[in-house]
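From the pipeline queue, job 12 of 40. The input is one protein chain; the requested action is below.

Action: predict structure.
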Amino acid sequence: MALGRAILISITVLWGLVLYRQTALAEEFLVGGPEGWTENISNWHPSGMTFHAGDVLEFVYDPREHNVVVVDKHGYETCKAPIGAFENNSGNDQVYLEKGANYFICTKRGCCEKNMKIVIIAE
């Protein structure tokens, strides 16, 4: 019984270290820099920055004017969010990046058509 308890404690400690390591390595990026999430942002990309799965994008904007919707490539290209897509609309949203391509658009007032959309590739 003592051996089983020791193994369980060891596994718990190791899992905690793994989670801590992943959290400690994550970086946070303010989308658009000081200007925030605005129209004509599609060219925003911090120069020389590499994004990783688990990094956080912070979207700051006026929620009366904009939102942030995570979409797929088709949604990005057509500026159409799929039915049931989650709309971030707090004006200060944090979104974790997944490995691969991450697509974001604004679905209000035709903003996406005005290049209020970005794609971030995370390693």
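Job complete. The longest strand covers residues 100-105.
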